[in-house]
C-alpha cells in the first residue's frame, strides 16, 4: 500500500523509526509547507518530495495520506485529502472542534474512505494484554479505573533543546497552546473506550496553572489548560477518572479495579510495559488487597524495543498498518472513524470544561471493535 506524509515535523521521525516493521507500507513521498524542513527530512531519510499538498494529492498511486501536521491544521489538511479521494491516517486530534471532527467522518463515509486518528497505542502489546486479562475476567467485574497522564513540570525542563532525530526542534509553543488534554488524553481514552465501550457522560474540570509557561514567545492563547481531571461514565456502567497535566510529576499509571483485584500497568507510552494483577485476599475474617503483584504474561514479545529510543517506546506506524490491512481485507478497522470521533469528542469535552466544570453527554457512539488477531 503506497502512503505519503504531509507534515515533516518532530513526530514524523517517530513514524520513520518503526516504518521498517511494515514492508507492506511503501512511503512514496513527503511534503511540508516549511521547505527547509521538508528538505532536511527528505534528505535524512532519502525520500522523494512533493512541492505541495496539491501535488501529493494528484499522485494517483498514493492510497493513504498520513497527516502529521500540527493539530490546528488537521481539519483543513484531512478534508483536502478526503476530497481528493485519499484515505487519511491523522495524528491526534482528529480535529480541534467536535463539528469539524464530525464533518471529516461524514465526508469519509460519503466517499467510502477511511479516516483514523492516532494514538494507536491500543494496538500495542501492553494494551492488548490488559484487554485480554479483562476478557478473561481476571479481576472480576470492573467498578472503577484510575488513569494518569501527568508529564512533569514541562515548562521547567530544557525543552528548547529537545530535537528530533533528523533535526526538528520540539514545537513547544504549539504544544502549550493546544494543551496537554487535547495532546494526551487520547492515550488512555482510546484504551478505555475499547475495553469498556462507548462513554455516556463526562464530568470535568480543567485549568491553566502556569499562564504563558515562562516561554520566550507570546502564547496564543496564553491560558490553555495545563491540568484537567475528568470522571467518565461508560454505558457499560464502569466509571473512570482520567487526569492530564504538564505540572504534576511524571505518572502514566493505569489501575483497573474489579471485585476480585486490581489490574495495573506503569506506563501506556511503553508498548512492552508489564501488566500486573493484585488479588483481593481473604484470610479468616480479614479481606485485603494482596500487596504482591503477579505478572500477567504479555500476549507476545513486543516488536518495538529495537526501533525506538528515549522515554517513548511506542510504534507510531502500527496504526497506518492497521488501516492499510483493513482497506486491503475490506473489513472494519480497529481504529475505525466512529471510534476516533468518539475518542476525540471525549478529549475536547474534557479540555473545554474550564474552572466552572462541565457535565457533558456524549453525542457520538461507536460499534464494537475487536482485539488484534495475535491477542485473542
Ligand atoms: N511532538 C511530539 O512529541 C508528538 C508526539 C506524538 C504525537 N504528536 C502529534 O503529531 C502532530 C505533529 O506534531 P509535531 O510535534 O510533529 O509538530 P511540528 O510542528 O514539529 O510539525 C508539524 C509540521 O507540519 C507542517 N505543516 C503544518 N501545516 C501544513 C500544511 N498545511 N501543509 C504542509 N505542511 C504543514 C509544519 O510546517 C511542520 O513542519 C500533532 O498532531 C501532535 O499532536 C506529537
Descriptive labels:
Rossmann fold; Dihydrodipicolinate Reductase, domain 2; single chain; 376 residues; 15 strands; alpha/beta; 10 helices; binds nicotinamide-adenine-dinucleotide; 2 domains
Mean pLDDT: 96
What is the molecular shape? globular
Count of DSSP-assigned helices:
10
Low-confidence segments, given as residue ranges, are none
CATH H-level name of the largest domain... which superfamily? Dihydrodipicolinate Reductase, domain 2
The separation of the N and C termini measures: 26 Å
Nearest-angstrom radius of gyration? 20 Å
* Relative helix content: 25-40%
Enter the CATH topology name of the largest domain. Dihydrodipicolinate Reductase, domain 2
Instruction: Give the total of domains.
Output: 2
Helix-strand string: EHEHHEHEHEHEHHEEEEEEEEHHE
What's the story with the biggest beta sheet? 10 strands, mixed
Task: State which percent range the strand residues make up.
Answer: 15-25%
Q: Which CATH-level-2 architecture of the largest domain?
A: 2-Layer Sandwich
